[in-house]
Inverse folding.
């Protein structure tokens, strides 16, 4: 903990990083703060274990907004690191412009998120171990399609179309969003059309969703969104032998241009 | 068709311009009978079909969607059909998980000379739709 704080302070003092993005606790407020040489004393308030924020998204705008080419530091949890790798692959920013400072989550937080990133999914997959276990997901999958339809109709009927799941999603980076397109989703309907509203996002982020579960955390009406994304994530690994967010060099099988190149060879 | 017989087609078929649409054309020219409750939508390549189109079709009441393209290796644009195959795999998983019946989304390879196969595929899907309808009632 103190090591990381010292590291961040020295990064800024030595001028290696222009600024460092970290989550800071001020009294009862836990908020992400951009630490620069001007507010270096915030370093002592850096909080590593309380809450998750979509800091990868803020990072992207920080990289865009910097005046010089000095790297931006960021304190990252394992899932957020996976998201940063995906954003690099989507060319939102270059990972060479960043200084990644890895931290581990606390045991409680890890249990709360049912996190698989900590024990490296790639290793689990290679060894043939069970990964991304989820009881609700398994029961739903083994049930009938009618049961599943009823389950999801019930949950999605609560949706208030706040777009929270999209706004918080680290890999939802399109400037024009299909969910705001009248050709895809009818405007002014509440609850939004089921299933297109929710599935359009699920298929869009397939291959880059890293199963962080922030969408479910952000949902004000507690729709178990992570189940869908977990299902997509798990099937993606099984079908394509590719783990989103695991490595920088591996190319996503749904990457159109790349697959054309491969086939052309 | 009389006006009171008009109903929304229960099958939407996205057909590739270079193979399957020509295959459907051949089925028509050869006067092969196949169920009429299908609406063909011609696309330049199955690789150009966004999953959103298919979701929209289901949203608007389609009972089944067929995506028909060139056989692997015969794509006019080299690999568009393989791209579609990958996308459909993901989409099929999600649709099944949300509770759509198994026979809702079909992916078939139909070449320009396979008019008979086209008719057979439509017949198969139409039977499947009737089966699903019967289960619901």
């Amino acid at each position: 903990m103190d090591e990381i704080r010292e590291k961040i302070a020295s990064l800024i003092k030595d001028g290696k990083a222009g600024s460092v993005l970290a989550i800071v606790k001020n009294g009862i407020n836990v908020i992400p703060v951009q630490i620069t040489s001007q507010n270096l004393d915030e370093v002592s308030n850096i909080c590593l274990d309380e809450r998750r924020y979509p800091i990868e998204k803020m990072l992207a705008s920080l990289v865009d907004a910097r005046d010089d080419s000095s790297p931006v530091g960021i304190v990252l949890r394992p899932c957020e690191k996976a998201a940063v790798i995906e954003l690099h692959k989507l060319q939102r920013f270059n990972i060479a412009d960043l200084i990644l400072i890895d931290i581990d989550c606390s045991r409680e937080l890890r249990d709360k998120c049912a996190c698989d990133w900590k024990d490296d999914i790639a290793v689990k997959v290679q060894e043939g171990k069970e990964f991304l276990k989820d009881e609700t997901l398994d029961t739903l999958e083994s049930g009938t399609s009618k049961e599943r339809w009823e389950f999801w109709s019930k949950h999605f009927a609560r949706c208030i179309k706040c777009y929270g799941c999209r706004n918080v999603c680290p890999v939802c980076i399109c400037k024009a969003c299909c969910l705001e397109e009248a050709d895809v989703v009818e405007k002014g309907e509440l609850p939004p059309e089921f299933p297109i509203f929710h599935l359009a996002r699920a298929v869009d982020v397939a291959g880059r969703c890293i199963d962080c579960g922030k969408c479910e955390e952000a949902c004000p009406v507690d729709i178990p969104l992570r189940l869908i994304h977990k299902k997509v994530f798990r099937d993606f690994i099984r079908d394509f032998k590719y783990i989103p967010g695991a490595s920088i060099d591996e190319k996503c099988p749904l990457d159109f241009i790349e697959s054309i190149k491969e086939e052309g060879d | 068709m009389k006006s009171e017989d008009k109903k929304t087609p229960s099958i939407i078929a996205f057909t590739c311009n270079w193979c399957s649409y020509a295959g459907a054309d051949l089925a028509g020219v050869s006067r092969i009978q196949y169920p009429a409750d299908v609406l063909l939508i011609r696309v330049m390549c199955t690789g150009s079909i966004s999953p959103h189109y298919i979701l929209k079709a289901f949203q608007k009441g389609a009972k089944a969607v067929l995506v028909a393209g060139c056989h692997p290796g015969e794509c006019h644009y080299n690999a568009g059909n393989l791209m579609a195959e990958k996308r459909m795999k993901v989409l099929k998983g999600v649709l099944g998980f949300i509770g759509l019946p198994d026979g809702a989304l079909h992916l078939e390879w139909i070449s320009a000379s396979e008019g008979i196969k086209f008719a057979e595929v439509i017949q198969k899907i139409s039977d499947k739709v009737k089966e699903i309808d019967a289960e619901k009632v």
About this structure: The interface with chain A takes residues 47, 51-52, 55-56, 58-59, 78-79, 82-83, 86-87, 89-91, 93-102 of chain B (CB under 8 Å). The domain at 7-136 of chain B is CATH 3.40.50.960 (Rossmann fold). The first strand of chain B starts at residue 11 and ends at 16. The beta strands of chain B are 11-16, 38-43, 64-69, 105-109.
